[in-house]
Amino acid sequence: MEKSDKRLFFPATQRNRGPIGEILSNFLPGDGTILEVASGSGEHGVVFQENFPNISWQTSDPNPIHRKSINAWIHYKKLSGQMPKPIHLEVEHRPWPLTDEIKSSLTAIVCINLIHISPIKCTYALFEESGILLRKHQLLILYGPFKRNGKHTSDSNYRFNESLKAQNSLWGVRDLEAVIEIGTKNKLGKLDVIEMPSNNLCIIFQKK
Ligand SMILES: C[S@@+](CC[C@H](N)C(=O)[O-])C[C@H]1O[C@@H](n2cnc3c(N)ncnc32)[C@H](O)[C@@H]1O
To answer: Is residue 55 a contact partner of residue 34, using CB atoms and an 8 Å limit?
Structure first.
């Protein structure tokens, strides 16, 4: 009961977990460990673990309150026997603290709504470390808002960007083309770009 009380509720996850889950069902491998970077409340993680029972969904987050929430969600959903506990992972602290077991069973990396709420050095770190950890043909899947050719794709994304910058001048909606270039430099080629509800994108990168 006590663990359940630590559950956090991020409203966006209610709206986007269905559409993101559909993309994952098209692209995720059928087995192995999926590493989720910046898992937040853990609401995505437990739903995806339930949706994809043959994989191990490894959540992570640097925020201890978020990791407590993830643990509470795992407990609440009775997934403790199936789903590992979250790890303390901050993308720019490299190498990431992954066990040999996680590294050897890793089949994909998923990152939802991180790169606009962190400095650009975090985007570089995410790609550099993913480029090292993923093996040939394995995927890095990103979800979030992006600019295209330097322009916001909607007024709401423009306003969202303004509010991000007001909170931290190093945050901001990233340019799709610039992120793809960072991927290319790290042997992560763009496989697909999928338009998602509410002016978000899913970008699928594949290790060369
Ligand atoms: C907007 S929330 C998104 C959470 C979740 N993925 C979702 O979509 O609900 C951003 C998350 O990124 C985490 N975060 C912030 N800076 C980070 C960093 N440098 N490395 C990894 N995660 C980070 C935060 O703790 C937070 O949980």
So the answer is: yes
